[in-house]
Design brief:
Blueprint lengths: L1 H6 L12 E6 L7 E8 H10 L14 E8 L1 H20 L11 E7 L5 E3 L1 H8 L9 E8 L5 H13 L32 E4 L3 E5 L2 E10 L9 H14 L2 E7 L4 H21 L7 E6 L8 H18 L6 H7 L4 E5 L5 H4 L11 H17 L15 H17 L7 H31 L3 H6 L2 H22 L7 H66 L2 H18 L4 H20 L20
Parallel strand pairs: 6-9, 6-10, 10-11, 11-12
Antiparallel strand pairs: 1-2, 1-3, 4-5, 4-7, 7-9, 8-9
Helix pairs in contact: 4-12, 5-11, 6-7, 7-9, 7-13, 13-15, 13-16, 15-16, 16-17, 16-18, 17-18
């Protein structure tokens, strides 16, 4: 049944297909054909109307489609009814007004047995790259903070508001006796959320430039007795980099441990964000729960409390939490105070409205309403403040995940974690620069004249020189302390050396091929029949001379002189012998120098490797 449900699920609404249709894809001279993807008719029409500026494209494969051809799919409809009919019967048995909840929570990041972070790239793609989100701006609302402080509870009320965008006067909050559903939660001391979760269904809200896809992200609680500090930092930093609207959930008041964790989160998020082109914190809400220190609540009380926190941090010199203070002083940082929700909610309620205290209900309603009304203004951006689409953000997060896989453990402090991410970025930049250098040399050497100007021995020297420059730059740019720094550079050196050796092997073959062609051609043109064989002597001598660098000096010299002497002496009147011998003598000297056999002050004249062979 689960497989059947996946086959008949609309990738726009993430619900069972309703009035399923197939769309037509342009195929040039072949004529229109179906691309094989199905959607609800209503979802597809709404999706195309929201992003009409980009033309009609399949929301799943994003290929151009015909906007006026939606073909009803009877086969898919019949399969969908096998799912919906039992659910409809169940809904009818619950009474009028009952509705099935579309969408579901999906886990983006899980922890393995050693508490290493593992990203589910398929789940990330489903959330950020399908259902039209891939081509649209996105707003990700994420919540982090103390465990057992109602983070998932809050997100579930955000779900209710987003599902009822036109509801007024708080009617979106639901019925008085309606249990709270969505992200898993419960009111007790045990941890419920593990890793990072997201709601599978995007919610579309209006914005100045069109529609924005809003997604909700829930993160495992931190600062608990059983919480691993390193894991909490990585999870929270990951959540910060993913989100564009960050909520830091805390209890009673903003305390020193809250600021300490915020300091660590920001430190890691800033370094990693800089490396991967992500703005670490675009908007921050300090959401204080169970507030009882004054009668003033909501945004007004939050403004007063935030001012008090900043003054306390500024009064101490040096500042104990400078990164946290810097963030809290931004105009994009706010604070909101919520009172105690009531005994029934705190002691195990199912989140029903009737169990809430009146002041808490009003604070919850006002906060959620204000957040959703401004969500379209908080789209995810990069460090240059350019808007990111779902696909672009997913690509950056996947790159970040690759670094997490390489450095799964061993972060003894936020500083070390930040250094590790920074060092990895330095190494990646060196790899990229080496790839550009290799591509440049490969492209230039495909020209005969350019290739013959740089012999394989000289090319090897150029690669060794560039490799040394890159390693030296890495050593300077990599941050301390980094215990694995030397080992990382050794690994990088071996990696770059392997790439260079692979290229030099093919380059040597290409060089000798050009030498043979030019040598024979030159002999044929200059000396006619006899000179052609002399040219062969030149070619043979050149090949033998190059062998002197790679193999042995004396043996290769014999090959060059012998080939030139025999071919040239017998047929070419000594021409091949003379030229071949000259080439061999030059390379004989270079080979001795490369092998370390040249003595200083021996009076020999250095022969340029850039001099043409002929």
């Amino acid at each position: 049944m689960e497989q059947l449900r996946e086959d008949v699920t609309c990738s726009i609404c993430w619900d069972v297909l309703s009035d399923p249709v197939s769309i037509i894809e342009y195929q040039g001279w072949k004529g229109p054909q179906e691309c094989g993807h199905n959607f609800c008719r209503g979802c597809l029409s709404t999706h195309w109307s929201q992003i009409s500026a980009q033309g009609h494209r399949c929301p799943e494969c994003r290929d151009p489609c015909s906007g006026d051809r939606m073909i009803p799919d009877t086969s898919v409809k019949n399969r969908a009814e096998k799912i919906t009919k039992p659910l409809q019967e169940e809904t009818e048995s619950q009474g009028p007004g009952a509705q099935r909840e579309p969408g579901r929570p999906v886990q983006l990041v899980r922890l393995d047995e050693e508490e290493n972070l593992i990203l589910d790239e398929e789940a990330l793609s489903r959330c950020l790259e399908q259902g039209g989100v891939g081509d649209a701006p996105v707003c990700l609302v994420s919540i982090i903070g103390e465990q057992r402080r109602g983070k998932s509870f809050l997100l579930n009320y955000l779900l209710r508001q987003l599902r009822s965008p036109d509801a007024r006067d708080g009617s979106w909050m639901g019925r008085e006796d309606e249990p709270l559903e969505g992200f898993e939660w419960r009111a007790d001391e045990e941890r419920v959320t593990n890793g990072v979760w997201a709601w599978s269904q995007p919610f579309w809200v209006p914005a100045k430039a069109g529609k924005v896809a809003v997604l909700l992200v829930d993160t495992e609680g931190s600062m608990g007795i059983e919480s691993n500090k390193e894991t909490s930092i990585k999870l929270s930093a990951f959540s910060m980099l993913l989100s564009s609207y960050q909520i830091l959930n805390t209890g009673c008041r903003v305390k020193d441990p809250d600021l300490e964790y915020l300091e660590m989160f920001v430190q890691v998020a800033e370094v990693v964000g800089e490396a991967y082109g992500l703005e670490p914190i675009q908007h921050l809400d300090l959401l204080v729960r169970d507030w009882s220190s004054s009668r003033v609540l909501g945004a007004q009380g939050g403004e007063q409390h935030l001012r008090h926190v900043r003054q306390k941090l500024e009064a101490r010199s040096p500042c104990k939490h400078p990164k946290a203070l810097e963030v809290l002083k931004r105009r994009s940082s706010c604070c909101y105070l919520m009172p105690f929700p009531g005994e029934r909610i705190a002691m195990g309620s199912e989140g029903r409205l009737r169990d809430m205290g009146e002041k808490f209900r009003k604070s919850l309603r006002d906060y959620v309403t204000a957040l959703v009304s401004t969500a379209g203004q908080h789209v995810r951006r990069d460090r240059h403040w350019e808007v990111l689409t779902g696909t672009q953000l997913a690509a950056k997060i996947k790159n970040l995940s690759d670094v997490m896989k390489k450095h799964r453990s061993g972060f003894s402090s936020p500083c070390q974690m930040a250094n590790t991410f920074h060092n990895q970025r330095v190494l990646d930049r060196a790899r990229a620069d080496h790839a550009v250098f290799l591509k440049e040399k490969d492209g230039g050497s495909r020209n005969v004249v350019a290739c013959l100007k740089v012999r394989p021995g000289k090319m090897a020297e150029l690669f060794a020189e560039r490799r040394g420059q890159l390693l030296g730059r890495c050593w300077t740019d990599m941050r301390e302390p980094a215990p694995e720094k030397e080992a990382q550079l050794t690994g990088l050196e071996e990696e770059l050396t392997r790439e260079a050796e692979t290229f030099l092997e093919s380059y040597g073959k290409r060089f000798k091929k050009f030498v043979t062609a030019v040598g024979v051609g030159a002999g044929a043109v200059a000396l006619a029949t006899v000179g052609g064989v002399a040219g062969a002597g030149i070619a043979a001598a050149a090949m033998g001379a190059e062998a002197a660098v790679v193999l042995s000096v004396s043996g290769a010299a014999g090959i060059g002189v012998g080939a030139g002497a025999v071919a040239g002496g017998c047929v070419g009147g000594g021409v091949g012998m003379g030229v071949g011998g000259k080439i061999t003598q030059k390379d004989k000297k270079r080979a001795k120098a490369a092998a370390g056999q040249r003595e200083e002050g021996d009076g020999t004249v250095e022969v340029s490797d850039t001099a043409p062979l002929i």
